[in-house]
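ping. complex inputs:
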Amino acid sequence: MTDSGNFHIPNDRYYDPVNHLWARVDSATGRIVVGLDALGLSALGDLVYVTLQPVGTPVRRGEPVGTLEAAKMTGDLIAPVSGILIGRNELVLRDPSLVNRDPYEGGWIASIDPTSWPKESAELIAGDAIPGWVKAEVERYQAQGWI
Amino acid sequence: MKGSVGWRLVTDDGVSASWGLAVDDALARRVGTGGSQTTLRLYTYRSHCALVGRFQRVEHEIHMDYCQEHGIAMNRRPTGGGAILMGEDQLGVALAVPDGSGDPCGGARAWMKKFSAGLVAALRDLGLGAEFRRKNDIEVSGRKIAGLGVCRVPTGGLLFHASLLVDLDVPLMLRVLNTPFEKIRDKEIAWVAARTTTVRRELGKEISLDEVRREVAAGYSAVFNVGLQASDFTPEESQAIAQMERDKYLARDWVFQTTDVNDAAGAAKVKTPAGLLDLKVTLAGRRLKAVLIAGDFFAPEVGIAALEAALRWHSSAPEQVVATLQEIYAAHPGLSEAVPLAGLAEAIELAVQSAALVKSGMPGEPYGCFVVPESAHG
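pong. complex structure:
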């Protein structure tokens, strides 16, 4: 776990540095479980609405897999990896505040059957790179006045 | 206009709901790709249309029968927030800019404050004490005068939306937007007037929408230090707008879409030493959309309005509700005697616990500025 200020960033997963999404490999299935990290959530604010494409939809890294609204701001939820959308957290779709309350476990958003994980995982932040990235992001967010 | 870096200024009036929204959406997408210049659009809709927020349910927010009978168009904004009534006396502000940060998690409140600064400056130049406050609104004397929203479009553009109340037909709004008021009497109108205001009301005189529009343009030019060049749409933009209107804003799938987040409403009555609290709430999922505080207590209206405003789009978690109540009570010392904080917190918690799902025709949050839930329990 990397702690920077009030932000807890688990070290057991990968992070999309642009979109502040985490991606964790489910060792039992090989699927990639996706959620939003605490720093991104802190800047976004409390989620009010989340929508996702239907299960079975092909998704591409960097392209929308759903939409969200927080604090009267709307935008896309961007897929951190390519593959097939295989799971949606229906609890989150009904109660998006679950993402804010429990971002790394119960507040997971989607799961994806990856098609390019070896290549795309290399584009994500992981392992020893996490603390430095978190520190820099916290400083950047503070400079922007987002947190 | 001053400034060295140019923005484009587009002004148009009497536009249809579908076309007006398509323009903003299409321009934001084109600005995101660099295909269009940063654009400030100051416009009005044809009287009248009702626009819900990005994820709201039309049937829960708008009196659809009334709108259909009276030719009032209904549509869905790409930006968030509550349902609004737009027409010739409400100035639409749309600012389409490239997102320099490239960060989808960029703080909503920071964007909203930044992009609304031109509007705040304009209102202050008119002599009004406008402030960016609370739930991303612009207020004058504690009353909402403009609602704000932001949308990040897939191409990397940002669309900032504001609706500025130059004037407002409150009785019409109460007929169009879903409220619990069975009759529209002076009492209900006064209730709205305590929570919203307009440019004309604050100035105490007539002012044309064009004059307000000029002030708003000047406000943006000054705050962002840019020159504004008035121009129309290019042929490519017109084509993109037409396609956007046809594919999205004229499509029932867009206008009448739903989400998995259920709307719910609840109510509670709690006796306090100061009197009976009669509290009603509406929720989107576990989020408070609106709270209505009534009862036989005597409290300053401005304090009650401040409480209701602070609890809009607020977490329903008791500890977060109490923290917000404490902030508002600290700013309004007279409140604690009139409405004991503990009693209010208890009433809110009980109302949330009692909340039942809304089936249809239940009220939401008209204008995102006043609170009109009705009991789900009859």
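Residues 25 and 32 of chain A are 5 Å apart (CA to CA).
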